[in-house]
Amino acid sequence: MTARLTSYVYQLSAAGGAEILAYHWHPGSAEARPHLHISAAAGSVLPELQRAHLPTGKVELAEFIRLLVRDFGVRPLRKDWRRVLGVSAQP
Q: What is the pTM of this model?
């Protein structure tokens, strides 16, 4: 049995719930290509956005989690999170 990614919406929100950025991929819609939405207020809410290296193209969930840990200081719940997600330690 294998799993296959068919669409996604990954969202980073501020503590109050305001969307900061969101990756979307929803084939069959008007905008079927993978894309990134950045909130107009993102820079004032999250200064780290100015230096973050945002992945482009099709984004796997593991890469989105790596972005959150690497560039936004999100603390992983497990010390072995890289191994579990199968992502490298390199940028």
A: 0.65
